Amino acid sequence: MFIQYECRHESAVDISEGADALMIKTGMFCPDVLYRVRQELRVSTFVYQASAGADAMVT
């Protein structure tokens, strides 16, 4: 339950700070939360999944 609240809250903060869209990494774990964020905030939402190796190269 906390993950749902935190995700919606942080997404709303990003939108209020001027974000035009949301890019969410590791979206495969919580599709229900992502659906609610998209429905409640009515903003373009992009979800992607990176493998552990690809993530290690980026960070």
Q: State the total count of DSSP E strands.
A: 2
Count of helix runs: 3
How is the largest sheet built, in terms of strand order? 1-2
What portion of residues is helical? 55-70%
The general outline is globular
Structural class: alpha+beta
Overall mean pLDDT stands at 79
Q: Which regions have little confidence, pLDDT < 50, spanning 5+ residues?
A: none
SSE order, as H and E? Answer: HEHEH
- Terminal CA distance reads 28 Å
Q: How is the secondary structure organized here?
A:
Elements: H1 2-16, E1 21-25, H2 31-41, E2 44-48, H3 52-58
Parallel strand pairs: 1-2
Helix pairs in contact: 1-2
Task: Give structural attributes.
59 residues, alpha+beta, 3 helices, 17% strand
Task: Please provide a written account of the structure.
The chain has 59 residues and is α+β, with helices and mostly antiparallel strands. The protein has one domain. The protein has three helices and two strands. It has helices spanning 2-16, 31-41, 52-58; strands spanning 21-25, 44-48. Helix 1 runs parallel beside helix 2 (31-41).
